[in-house]
From TrEMBL:
Membrane topology: Multi-pass membrane protein
InterPro entries per the UniProt record, alphabetical: PtdIno-glycan_biosynth_class_S
Keyword Transmembrane: yes
Lineage of the organism: Eukaryota, Fungi, Dikarya, Basidiomycota, Agaricomycotina
Keywords: Endoplasmic reticulum, Glycoprotein, GPI-anchor biosynthesis, Membrane, Transmembrane, Transmembrane helix
Protein name stated in the entry: Phosphatidylinositol-glycan biosynthesis class S protein-domain-containing protein
CC annotations in GO: GPI-anchor transamidase complex
Signal peptide range in chain numbering: none
Pathway in which the depicted protein is active: Glycolipid biosynthesis; glycosylphosphatidylinositol-anchor biosynthesis
Source organism of this protein record: Crepidotus variabilis
TM segment ranges: 28-45, 464-483
Primary site of residence: endoplasmic reticulum
Similarity field: Belongs to the PIGS family.
Metal-binding recorded as keyword: no
GO biological process terms held by the UniProt record: attachment of GPI anchor to protein; GPI anchor biosynthetic process
Amino acid sequence: MDSSPQPPPTSPRDPSKLFHQKDSLRRSIVAVYWTVIVLSIPLWWTTTSIQRLSLPFNGVREQAYRTLELPISICLDTTDSTFRKEVADLLARKVAENSSRWAGTAPSVKSITECAGTNDFYTIKNHNSSPYIDGRQLYFPLEEPNASSQLVDALASLLVPYTTSADPDRRVAQYSSRYRLAFSLLNEDATTGDGVMRWKVQEGLRAHIKPILKRLHALHNFTIESQVQFHAPLAFSPRQIEEVYAISPEDLTVFINSAEWTLSSSSSNDPVLHLVLFIPSSTRRPLHILTKDESISPSNAFIRPQWGGIIIHTPTSLTSTNELPSKDLDIIFATFASQLLGLLGVPQLPSTVQRAPSDLKASFSDWQLDALLRRRTLENAAGSQDTLLSIVKLVNQLEGMPVHEDVRDDVENALSFLTKMYDTSHSSLRQTFEFSARSFNLASRAFSNPGLLALLYFPTEHKYAVYTPLFATSGLPLFFAALREVKRWKESRLAKHKKA
């Protein structure tokens, strides 16, 4: 047994006298935490606050409910004032009977002298043969019985050719200032033989497509691309009827095999109008389209609304280099041209009115171009008004929605062009269209601005969900620690005061 003396037991140290437990050090630590938090508030406020510039709310509301009316001056080249009044009355009655068709237009019948100071007008001249147009002149047999009612019917078909039933499948593409035209030659399976290896696309474009694009340069800018594919299988099997193959109307809805066809090679955001020449496999020829009554359609071409046009072509002969002959190419691109006109909204002339030989130099007449300009102007005006009104309503309803300089500038410029559109509506149709197109493009760009949509991806509720757990776990301990130190400081001061 060890009898050596044991050291005396050490008494426990007073915790208050430990260095890391000193009141001054503990309070300094708590103070540092709170100092960092307070100094971080301006930085946090700057990085999390949104820029919300003011928008011209009153100006947008004022312009949004204005009605655009495009005047149409019809000048009758006749000295018979009674006939002119009869035509004016019949035209006014037709406008009243079908106000939706004439919406946005204000037709008026004038004499030649009254049209002298007008920029855009249409002249009606007497002519004893069948009606025809030359430029903005309509030659019509004005001296025949019922000439006034027949003239009004012809004017209605020429001036406002668009009706609700005229485009039941909404095939006309939505307006865009820029389009890409993609011409594609697709072989279903060139390995089976008799595939088309090449086509003289430049020749077809020069003869049929470029005159249309030149005529429409005031409305759109076009970019053209072309391609040839040697394997473009269908997603279904055509039906065999005796010695031919056929595609039903139901099959046409799934004819485009987007999963295996690469129809656009550009990375541009411009909308694309596709014009496709499909060459069936040699094992499925001839390939035809069926009508609803199961008979073979006389046409092997069809339009997919707002997407493009397709031609199914069974080649009867090829050149030694497996190229389409010029005769086939001419027919194909003439069909492409017709499909393109339909997709872009160019109206057809009424069957009762022909074009003069001198007027045939252009792809389509001035009457058709003006009707298209009026349609697109009214569409752009309505689209710009609706878009601007939607922007200001969203900004008003969502208080946290950011509005940066680019959005504000686009809205203000769109509103400015909208005002200019109304100011020029009675003087120049083309300039009115240009202002409407600029306004629509700017309004659309503002509405789809990524900065405007930032709130949709980081809403207020999401902020609460992030900040609440953070402040609950770090903020509360710091708050109670500071409260405890303040309480201890007061108690120590009170104790010193009592000792004194």
